[in-house]
Task: structure prediction
Amino acid sequence: MYSAVNLPTEPSTLDSRPVVQTWNLRKVYRTGFWMNQKIESLQDCSLTVYQGETFGLLGPNGAGKTTLLKILLGIIRPTSGKAVLLERPIGDRNVKQRIGYLPENAYLYDYLTAWEFLEFTAGLFQIPKTVQRRRITELLDLVGLAKSTARKKKLRQYSKGMLQRVGMAQALINEPEVVFLDEPMSGLDPMGRYRMREIILSLKRQGKTIFFNSHILADVEQICDRIALLALGELICEGSLTQLLGNSDAYQVIVKGGDSQTLTPWIDHLTGENHYWHGQLKKEPDRFLAHLAQIDARLISLHLARPSLEEFFMEQLRERGIEVSR
Result:
């Protein structure tokens, strides 16, 4: 205990065991004075997360991300559909011993020190005192909090970034197999976001399965193996960044000079106008630059052919008529 449209899964993930699976999950809330109005927060959501991967669930505010996370954790019940976590039905009490959770707005007892709060959390998991001391020390080191500060300083004196670190430590106190993080970068300054990314990457190196919600796309693009996009409760797409965005080593180039005969072996979809040539580079950039020097041509621009995750995200929303503010 202590120790929408789905794209084809990449071969590397097929060898791994599914740890999160959902089938047609749906959640409807009742609202209004007479509770006679319905809001569909989640629609027919089916996805799979594999052991050892970092999975990012993306979407604008109100997309249904937190609703899905709370269903998986057994905090709320779905209206219909099915889900399993670590091969057990959601809500299984034994499974809860094997997972960690950091809410978006975690409530930490502000009259306790970080050390006391982690001791309290460890007690909930019935972790022996001798193990607690070792484990808390390891976690404070992982999240970048000094042991002396954690023993003396009350949580009400902590900054937002420091509280997020303590929250991350409590999510890991039981050495979970799966870690759920709800908007872990929200409200953090650049240093806090950097620290949180490093913690997640450290967990990834340990082989933990990480499932997190976010709308900070630059962070997701750096650390996730696969992503899913949720909007208005609907799962739009799911896959790796390569599957969704295209190959990461393909480049678009603009060249001045040369001719079609000397450039065609190097550039696909070559088009030219007024001595400028455009296309997609199909060989190594370094060798291509050397070739340009030999044919007395000049490189004007060279950039990745695939869109950024932000560009892809915004385009997917526009295609579905979801208003995107400028």
